[in-house]
Amino acid sequence: MSINQVYKRFPAQNDCLNHVEQVRWHGKRVCPYCKSTKVSPVSAERRYHCNGCNTSFSVIVGTIFHHTHLDLQKWFLAISLILNATKSISTRQLARDLEVNKNTAWRIATQIREAMAETEQRTLLQGIVASDETQAGGKLCKEGDNGKGPNKTRRRTKIARVAGMLECGATREHSQSC
Known about the structure:
By secondary structure, the chain is an alpha+beta fold. It has one domain (3-175). It is built from seven helices and seven strands. Strands 1-2-3 form a three-stranded antiparallel β-sheet, with no helix packed on it. α4 (91-98) crosses α5 (102-117). Residues 170-178 have low confidence and may be disordered.
């Protein structure tokens, strides 16, 4: 998912919460502490009350988004940036892109990478696709020096462009590499 797609699909915090609720609960609210379905809404702040264990919670309890003060939109943006990075994205680059400090960016990146390894957390990343592209083939040839500086190497034959995409958590074998 590109940065523009993240902004279009999740323009506000409420849209992000709706997505996390749909992925995590599939329309039926469940208490993260006792797994009870006897849950009632408490306030407009998207908090719920469990009648089973008498606790208050939100949908992000027990997820990588728990105990954060950042908007979920920035988290979704960070997930997109980390998964779409050609090699890997540095903490400082992530901090610049998200407009947060480097410690916050480091925590976000660490949480996301740990979530990719955990089966339960991986379901939150469904629908997020990792993609990569490369070029294959082509023959390198040297151009002659035509008075414009040193000889340059360039490709003269046709190049095949190859792209691959993988939904995180799509299969058991491939989800570890995502």
